[in-house]
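2024-03-11 09:14:02 INFO worker-7 job=invfold-0412 stage=load source=structure_tokens
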């Protein structure tokens, strides 16, 4: 499992819609969203960011077409902070755009830019509307500011956004694959159970005629990408649960003697150390990145992990 996580960092969504050899899928989805009828996949200029952005993953899919800067992401958990993520993504995308074309932001001539379009595709079991617009300004504590970014969140889980799914067979197939994995994954209590659940889901999709060519050609790779995605999801849940537990513990301890605060802090640090060590072991973070998140040196992180009997490899 560790070797799988270290090797496969792409997601199935990104592989389906962001791979150079599958531009036709991105074009199909773009046409379904924009109501256009482009037929030449070479119209798409892929520009996906290669840097580590979140849990060792790149942004999912970004490209330029029709004077528009398209950015797509997929989510399995509702996240109200997508506009904030977009701020980081688009800043880098436009920086790369101007650098590649040798445009001078400090010159006296206006630089014309492709119009940004940011869409988040949600596939999950939470109660999410078919379409939701998130705004960066909703997070501004002092009210309206001088910057706005929006994220259009589309729920493409089975039973939602049917017109869009009917217009894009590849997206419909992806949603069906995720739903089938979830169906078999619910009873998975171990990594072996999860592997079997994913294998069974892939086989069922092929038998049902869902993404047949893609899943048949890349069955092993898709299996490993899904394993990695669910491993990442497990780590994210660890962080969320840790945060909730911190809040409960602090509430229970409020008003007690100050000497207990040290114990609480040690407990919080131990929880963060455990989660970060697991991410290093599974290949989602480098040792340097994990140490920075804890605010200590790599040597200190390694020593703390050793003392807590936490494996890093």
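2024-03-11 09:14:09 INFO worker-7 stage=emit residues=313
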């Amino acid at each position: 499992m560790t070797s799988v996580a270290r090797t496969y960092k792409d997601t199935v969504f990104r592989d389906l819609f962001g791979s150079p050899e599958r531009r036709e899928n991105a074009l199909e989805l773009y046409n379904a969203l924009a109501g256009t009828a482009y037929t030449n996949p070479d119209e798409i200029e892929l520009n996906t960011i290669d840097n580590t952005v979140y849990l060792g993953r790149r942004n999912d899919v970004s490209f330029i077409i029709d004077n528009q800067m398209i950015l797509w992401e997929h989510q399995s958990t509702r996240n109200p902070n997508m506009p904030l993520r977009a701020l980081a993504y688009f800043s880098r995308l436009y920086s790369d755009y101007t650098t590649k074309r040798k445009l001078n932001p400090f010159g006296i001539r206006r630089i014309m830019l492709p119009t940004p379009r940011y869409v988040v595709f949600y596939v999950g079991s939470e109660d999410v509307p078919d379409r939701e617009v998130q705004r960066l300004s909703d997070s501004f504590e002092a009210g309206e500011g001088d910057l706005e970014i929006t994220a259009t969140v589309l729920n493409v889980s089975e039973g939602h956004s049917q017109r869009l799914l009917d217009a894009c067979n590849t997206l419909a197939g992806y949603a069906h694959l995720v739903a089938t994995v979830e169906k078999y994954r619910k009873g998975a209590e171990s990594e072996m159970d999860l592997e079997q659940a994913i294998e069974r889901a892939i086989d069922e999709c092929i038998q049902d005629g869902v993404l047949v060519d893609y899943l048949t050609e890349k069955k092993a790779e898709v299996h490993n990408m899904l394993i990695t995605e669910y491993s990442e999801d497990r780590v994210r849940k660890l962080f969320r649960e840790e945060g909730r537990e911190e809040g409960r513990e602090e509430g229970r301890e409020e008003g007690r003697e100050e000497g207990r605060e040290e114990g609480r802090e040690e407990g919080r640090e131990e929880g963060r150390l455990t989660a970060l060590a697991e991410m290093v072991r599974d290949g989602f973070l480098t040792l340097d990145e994990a140490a920075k998140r804890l605010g200590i040196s790599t040597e200190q992180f390694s020593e703390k992990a050793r003392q807590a009997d936490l494996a890093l490899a």
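2024-03-11 09:14:09 INFO worker-7 stage=report msg="Residues 49 and 59 are 6 Å apart (CA to CA)."
2024-03-11 09:14:10 INFO worker-7 job finished
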